[in-house]
């Protein structure tokens, strides 16, 4: 899901071109659109830059969790230099969400990032 039509078209094209065996559903919408609240997904992926764009960290995460089926997972990825990991862990503690897995990727220090798997 992205509000940028070009990003959505490119992602949908790549899914088709690569013949992905389990393609993602691509939605060109805002995470805050009321019309998507009835849709539920097993996995929602959130990239760190996307959580910064709306300027409301908690509301963005709340919206992502609202999109998940019971037992679904949020995959959260962000650059380590933006200190989002600490903020994410505080949020998860306050919401009683379960951090299933946390991986760090620091092969290229200037682009170091983490990925967390969070269960609803």
Characterization of the model:
InterPro entries: SAM-dependent_MTases_sf. One of its GO terms (molecular function) is methyltransferase activity. It comes from Paenibacillus gallinarum. This protein is of the alpha+beta class. The chain folds into two domains: 1-29, no CATH class; 38-119, Rossmann fold (3-Layer(aba) Sandwich). Helices cover 33% and strands 28% of the residues. The chain is built from four helices and four strands; from the N terminus they run H-E-H-H-E-H-E-E. The protein has helices at 5-17, 48-52, 57-66, 84-95, and strands spanning 41-47, 68-79, 98-105, 113-119. The protein has a four-stranded mixed beta sheet with strand order 1-2-4-3. The radius of gyration is 15 Å and the shape is globular. The relative contact order is 0.15. The mean pLDDT is 86.
Short description, anyone?
The protein has 120 residues and is of the alpha+beta class. The chain has helices at 5-17, 48-52, 57-66, 84-95; strands at residues 41-47, 68-79, 98-105, 113-119.
């Amino acid at each position: 899901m992205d509000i940028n039509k070009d990003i959505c078209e490119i992602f949908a094209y790549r899914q088709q071109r690569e013949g992905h065996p389990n393609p993602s559903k691509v939605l060109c919408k805002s995470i805050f659109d009321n019309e998507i609240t009835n849709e539920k997904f097993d996995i929602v992926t959130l990239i760190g830059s996307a959580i910064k764009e709306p300027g409301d960290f908690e509301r963005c995460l709340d919206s992502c969790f609202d999109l998940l089926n019971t037992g679904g997972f949020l995959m959260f990825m962000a650059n380590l230099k933006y200190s989002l990991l600490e903020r994410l862990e505080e949020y998860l503690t306050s919401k009683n969400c379960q951090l299933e897995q946390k991986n760090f990727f620091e092969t290229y220090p200037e682009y170091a990032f983490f990925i967390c798997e969070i269960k609803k």
